[in-house]
Amino acid sequence: MSRRYLTFGDIAGKPEMLRVECTRCARKGSYSVAKLVAQYGRRGNMSKWVSDLRGDCPKRNAPQLHERCDLIWG
């Protein structure tokens, strides 16, 4: 069975920095891919990491879908 999510190993050595920002608010940041691999391992689930980043967002559980935190990365 193939996995359906990216791992930090999938992007290791490609971009140096991973940029993350919300399309609903001003939240944004940059993360070193090498540090993410060191912290979470090459098999670390990137989708779970992004979900964890949303953890303290006041819009995380907004009643309307179009108002919820929407972090994108690239």
Description:
The longest helix has 8 residues, at 33-40. 4% of the residues are buried. This protein has a three-stranded antiparallel beta sheet with strand order 2-1-3. The model has no long low-confidence stretch (mean pLDDT 89). It is α+β, with helices and mostly antiparallel strands and 74 residues long. It is built from three helices and three strands; from the N terminus they run αββααβ. It has helices at residues 8-11, 33-40, 46-53, and strands spanning 17-22, 28-32, 71-73.
Main beta sheet strand tally, sense and closure: 3 strands, antiparallel
Q: Unreliable segments (pLDDT under 50, ≥5 consecutive)?
A: none
> What structural class should be given to the helix and strand makeup?
alpha+beta
Please give the radius of gyration in angstroms: 13 Å
SSE order: HEEHHE
Estimated share of beta-strand residues: 15-25%
Strand arrangement within the widest β-sheet reads: 2-1-3
Q: Judging from the principal axes of the Cα atoms, what is the shape?
A: globular
Give the mean pLDDT: 89
Determine the fraction of residues in helical runs and give it as a percent range. Answer: 25-40%
Question: How far is the N terminus from the C terminus?
Answer: 26 Å
Number of E-type strands: 3
Count of separate DSSP helical elements: 3
